[in-house]
Design brief:
binds 2-phosphoglycolic acid; 12 helices; alpha/beta; 251 residues
């Protein structure tokens, strides 16, 4: 049985005060929840204050990105160890905004996946097709390639550290959620691929989140699918009421 995993991706939002207030509000609202793993991935500069605000909660902390090198002359970058140092357990890698706005490649993302696992962080590896790729019937091809390249060289033993997040790019921040059937279809395809790449027992253990305009009103329907094991939530993770309502729905 896979334990549901709901992560909030705050992206480049909040300020120091609102970040701490959101974290404290979530900690209080979710103090009774232990049947769902919950994490918030905040901007780097608020990780430390949010970690403090979450210190007596069940909510884990994550970064939104990292660099694969351990240290050195990489201006503007953050290492795995630095994220661990400020209490992160997770790191989002290969988010579509990193791929399509910042130009990250599968090869770079794969290096980050290796660095995160070796350094002791749990990567949330994001994959997903653009609107024109879906309309051109290329969803399976694109997602298959992103999963294979993102996990290239990751052994069966290590892949258990990974959560996959299927985020159709056309559904992110647009209010257009994939239908429950569209989500299930791709999630089942990804699980089949993991079975081919590893084996059925490993594929059964890996959690696959859905992301893209997930909100309180569509949480139950998305999560009712057998292969949807959680959600990666952007906009709706910025409000205590919305994010906690989603988690309570799942719990
Ligand atoms: P959204 O973002 O929920 O605002 O669509 C999801 C994501 O990008 O992770």
């Amino acid at each position: 049985m896979r334990k549901p995993f709901i992560a909030g991706n705050w992206k480049m939002n909040m300020d120091g005060e609102s970040a701490v207030a959101l974290a404290a509000g979530l900690g209080a609202a979710l103090s009774e929840v232990d049947t769902v793993d919950v994490a918030v991935c905040t901007p780097y500069v608020y990780l430390q204050s949010v970690a403090k605000a979450l210190s007596s909660s069940n909510i884990a902390l994550g970064g939104q990105n990292m660099y694969f090198e351990q240290g050195g002359a990489f201006t503007g970058e953050i290492s795995c160890q630095m994220l661990k140092d400020v209490c992160c357990s997770y790191v989002i890698l290969g988010h579509s905004e990193r791929r399509h706005v910042m130009g990250e490649t599968d090869e770079l993302i794969n290096k980050k996946v290796h660095a995160a696992i070796s350094g002791g962080l749990l990567p949330i590896l994001c994959v997903g097709e653009l609107l024109e790729e879906r309309e051109g019937d290329k969803t399976t091809e694109v997602v298959t390639s992103q999963v294979k390249k993102g996990l290239e060289g990751v052994t069966a033993e290590k892949v258990l550290a990974v959560t996959l997040a299927y985020e159709p790019v056309w559904a992110i921040g647009t209010g257009k959620t994939a239908t429950s059937d569209q989500a299930q279809e791709v999630h089942a395809m990804i699980r089949g691929l993991l079975t081919e790449m590893y084996d059925a027992s490993i594929a059964e253990q890996i959690r696959i989140q859905y992301g893209g305009s997930a909100k309180p009103g569509n949480t139950a329907e998305l999560m009712a699918n057998p292969d949807v094991d959680g959600l990666l939530v952007g906009g709706a993770s910025l409000k205590v009421e919305d994010f906690s309502a989603m988690i309570k729905t799942v719990a």
